């Protein structure tokens, strides 16, 4: 349990609310009614076997995937979805989609930096071109964020000259640059060599300590136990077990969850 984390979300603002999300790909139902609420300052760890639906849930949250049914609210604003004539769902209002996306910072397993731009240029891209910030202001803020993730010295370097851990820290700075209400991480350390995992987890841990709202898909169980205040174990598109890290890791009710979180050698 991290310092200062609040157990009871009742008095804090909900930042992300997913209500009974269903998502199918063809005949395969990947999410079978998943609900999740992240209040201000929550760090939610999503854990579960490969294929259980963790990435799809994150991608539904920022509408990279559109659920077949269910409600999504970001900062109390419900995303309006329409059913098209062929039965699929789409976002009703593209401006709303842009507004909602600007509240979500996303960090993927593969760092997805622009190869032909320097680290700083990567970081200021969205603030300047999407949010319309003055360039000088975006640069000042970008440099501050690069200091925070320990990459200021590399600000004028191209991504190819960085280690995987440095690239991922740059990607985190880039996601932070839009001043998101919530950060979404999808296995941020899975593509890294083992010796580089720690530096990225440290940055995410610092963000948690600042009280940032985050949803983190991770296979790093020790990290989930220490940093999250709520853990959700997904199995086959449903939430099989959830609760405090103490409960999910210490005394899970589900046998499947128990097997999954059991320390391995
Ligand atoms: P996880 O992140 O927990 O490993 P995913 O959400 O990536 O799981 O995937 C859940 C299931 O959905 C898997 O069976 C996967 O093959 C399937 N899936 C994910 N994305 C697509 C897609 N775009 N088209 C078809 N099937 C998909
Ligand atoms: Mg995944």
UniProtKB/TrEMBL annotation:
It is a peripheral membrane protein. The keyword Ribonucleoprotein does not apply. PANTHER family: AMINO ACID IMPORT ATP-BINDING PROTEIN, L-CYSTINE IMPORT ATP-BINDING PROTEIN TCYN. Gene3D superfamilies: P-loop containing nucleotide triphosphate hydrolases (3.40.50.300). PROSITE patterns: ABC_TRANSPORTER_1, ABC_TRANSPORTER_2. Transmembrane segments: none annotated. This is ABC-type histidine transport system ATPase subunit. The keyword Protein biosynthesis does not apply. Residues 243-265 are annotated as: Disordered. It is found in: Cell membrane. Residues 16-261 form the ABC transporter domain. Residues 253-265 have a biased composition (Basic and acidic residues). Pfam families: ABC_tran. Keywords: ATP-binding, Cell membrane, Membrane, Nucleotide-binding, Transport. It comes from Labrys monachus. Belongs to the ABC transporter superfamily. The lineage of its organism: Bacteria, Pseudomonadati, Pseudomonadota, Alphaproteobacteria, Hyphomicrobiales.
